[in-house]
Amino acid sequence: MGTWGMGLFDNDGAADLLDDLVAMPEDRRLGALRGVLSSAAAERDYLEAPEGEMAVAAAALIAAARADGTAPADPAHAPDLTVPEPPRRLAVLAVHALDRVLAPDSELAELWDESDGGQEWLAHLARLRAELAGGAD
Asked: Which of 41, 89, 121, 123 is an S-S bond match for 112, by CB 3.0 to 4.6 Å?
């Protein structure tokens, strides 16, 4: 797992997603995030770590872009990245994607479960999920 910290963006998958988003026009970013989240949420087989990392980062960006959002974006890795305010249905999709990342047949969940920081990582995801679920009514 290419990870350098506990943060939601501190991994290769998130960095790749951020690079892709920065390179595309702003009006295409929500569609790209929807695609990442949909792919993770719909995966019925084993969810590989890179897809899980991207789904977590996409969920964090959706939470940060909401008008009432308090989740941090990622200024350290993509200080100029802006994401338009997402519709509520993207918060719902982000919750489903996070649930999939946390499922037993998710490589990312397995890797964090085996690491010393697994409980802290789970706490980060629980806060993010609660933030998104609060706006997903």
From this structure: 121
- The domain spans of the chain are 12-134
What pLDDT is attached to residue 137? Answer: 46
Exposed/middle/buried for 73, CB within 10 Å: 0-12, 13-18, 19+? buried
Helix intervals (H) in 66-106: 88-101
* Alpha carbon distance 21, 125 (integer Å): 22
Q: Which two tokens stand for residue 15?
A: 């960095």
Counting beta carbons within 10 angstroms of the beta carbon of residue 75, is it exposed (0 to 12), middle (13 to 18) or buried (19 or more)? exposed
As a whole number of angstroms, the distance between CA 73 and CA 120 comes to 18
Contact 57, 76 (CB under 8 A): no
Q: Percent of the chain at pLDDT above 90?
A: 70
Q: What is the pTM of this model?
A: 0.91
Q: Report pLDDT digits (tens) over 89-129.
A: 999 999 999 999 999 999 999 999 988 888 999 999 999 99
In the chain the first and final C-alpha atoms are separated, in Å, by 34
